[in-house]
Amino acid sequence: MKNLSAYFVIGALLSVPLWLHDQYFLHVLITTGIFTIGAMSLNLLLGFTGQLSLGHVAFFGIGAYASALTTLGFDVPLFGDVRIVHEPWHPVAGILIGTALAGLCGYLIGKLSFKIRGAYFVIVTVSFAEVVRLVALNWVDLTQGPLALNNIPPMRIDIPGVSEIVMWQKAPNYYLVLALALVAYYLIRRIVRSRMGRAMIALRENESLATSVGIDVTRYLTFAAVMSAALAGAAGALYAHYIRIIDPDIFLFIYTVTMVIMVVTGGKGTLAGPIVGGIIFGLLPVGLRTVAGPEVQWIVYGIFIVLIVFFLPRGIVPAVHDWWQRRTGKQARYVAPAPFLATRASAAHVGTDAFAKARDSKNSGNAVSRK
User: Fold this and answer.
1) Where are the transmembrane segments (predicted)?
2) Could you tell me the residue range of the domain that residue 288 belongs to?
């Protein structure tokens, strides 16, 4: 039944460009999809490890700038007569490089900052995002600074010996974003349901207990940071080739806040939460724009967030799941996948029982032999 529902949803999403002919709304769906991918990547870190990153937009922007510069090319002076010259590459190479560079930055930040926790980690991530923004703003020879990188080539797919597909239109870009979203969902789902994912959840639930049973905190948190940053970088690279112009404003703090809102209101620590939150808060401003002015839009937007947090503190997806369970006569509350600690505890319990039975059997045998 679940597989049938998933196929139905995917089929419905694939059919959207066939019946939605308004290019503006298709543009809204594309940008909403890109930021939903960013929210999904943030959820891997915030929802499944419990680490709040308020500098997540830095990885998004790094992916965008890296991919744009790879496809545009650059000629940058270093010192004296030494220059770095790069010829334009294919957009696919740009997306791959942007994803890899964002993942590398996630690894470095994870290695350096996961030795600290709480507010200190938040400060490190915010500071990193601000440093990257200042670099993009002031390194004019490379990034054009406030003048922005423009005329970024659109995504292009070459079929050897057949044709070349250049994605100028919105429909091909929609399918490209949808494909990346499905890949991101599949990767996150596989990670969460693996041994590594259970370890990450265990760290979120009780870090001290997780450490006591042998879970390497830095290793698993760094892995989560790398995957989260890489997916955010891929989303940023896709954004650059779709919008075709980027400037330092891509690092604005409001974009990170938007991703956090999507994760928390949808249901952090759930696979569907960021998707539901992303769709709602991606389309809500568009719906409000047709009936209210800018000031009223922000007021309604804020009230809606407060109501969700107040009445649905665990998010929309867990609340809907619990409601459906009650409706169908099942009283089980929504729970995250079983933590790694539970598996270890169960194994330890089974081992203890087996040891006790063996010991009792041995004692009984000795007693009979003595008789």
Assistant:
1) 24-45, 57-80, 92-110, 119-140, 171-188, 220-239, 245-264, 271-292, 298-317
2) 20-363
Q: Is residue 28 part of a domain?
A: yes
Dist CA 143 CA 88 (whole Å): 15
Nearest to 282 by CA among 135, 160, 181, 159: 181
Task: Indicate the residue type of 95.
Answer: I
- Token look-up 């007693």 returns 367
Q: Are 200 and 46 in contact (CB under 8 A)?
A: no
- Listed in sequence order, the residues at least 6 apart from 87 whose beta carbon sits closer than 8 Å to its beta carbon are 73
How big is the chain, counted in residues?
A: 371
Assigned domain for 189 exists: yes
Residue 12 within any structural domain of the chain: no
Q: Which is it for the CA torsion 308, 13, 193, 329, positive or negative?
A: positive
Strands, E assignment, 189-251 = 245-246
Q: Where are the beta strands (DSSP E) in 217-305?
A: 245-246
Per-residue pLDDT of 327-366, as tens digits, reads 887 655 555 554 444 444 443 443 334 334 444 544 444 4
| pLDDT tens by residue, 243-297 | 999 999 999 988 999 999 999 999 998 999 999 999 998 888 888 887 877 778 8
Output phi, psi for 288, to 5 deg: -70, -30
Q: Is 156 exposed, middle or buried (0-12, 13-18, 19+ CB in 10 A)?
A: middle
CA distance 339 to 346: 11
Task: Report the distance separating Cα 133 and Cα 142, nearest Å.
Answer: 13
Question: 220 in a domain, yes or no?
Answer: yes
